[in-house]
Write a structure and sequence with these properties.
Layout lengths: L2 H4 L5 H23 L18 H4 L7 H21 L4 H19 L9 H18 L2 H14 L15 H17 L59
Helix pairs in contact: 2-4, 4-6, 4-7, 5-6, 5-8, 6-7, 6-8
Length: 241
Amino acid sequence: MKEHDHFKFSTGIIAYPVFFVLIIWLVFWFEVRFGFNFSRYGVHPQTFKGLRGVIFSPFIHGNIQHIYHNTIPLFVLSMALFYFYRPIAWRVILYGILLSGFLTWCIGRSSYHIGASGLIYVLVSFTFFKGVFAKHYRLIALSLLVVFLYGSTIWYTLPIEEGISWEGHMSGLITGLLFALFFRKQVAKPKKYIWQQENYNEDDDPFLKHFDENGNFIESIEPEVEKGQPTINYTYKENKD
């Protein structure tokens, strides 16, 4: 796939994140409207039943503040993912949910861990490290933007606030880093100019031929004529009409 194919806008770039966020809000609305509580379907570490939360927990939120704080970064980061990393976007999201959820199940406290924040940390970590590893100016710019917007969230991977699943955040951070390493080759490569290519020879460069060895511009260059080739001279007559 060519570089411009990676960075080409399509309706899916917005449609997929909107659809994902819409599902989360529909689940929350269903809970509020009909009086359900799906928290027990979250990740409950080291229990067999708690494994179902690996799949369900990103769609479950405890209150309006919880879902609101997750909605905007999830939408922005997933939209960036589908724009800059379209060939691997779905794998990052789906495998990110599974792996970060499973890591949370392995290292988490004995409690229900719910919310899309684990996936958000997957996207933050993946986007940042992927841009650094790719050495592509657009992707590096995206990494810097992610740091500017969400860099402070790194503190929530530590147990600094009661009631927040720092284990889920840490699992997402680790998962994103692993994905950035695993998908390292599947990224648009920076475009190489002629003088950056290995077989470049400056003696054959038609532009450099307009300068002498001292860097002075040569106004006219005599055309090279191969030996044995006939020389063609053109004579123009003035039109007297």
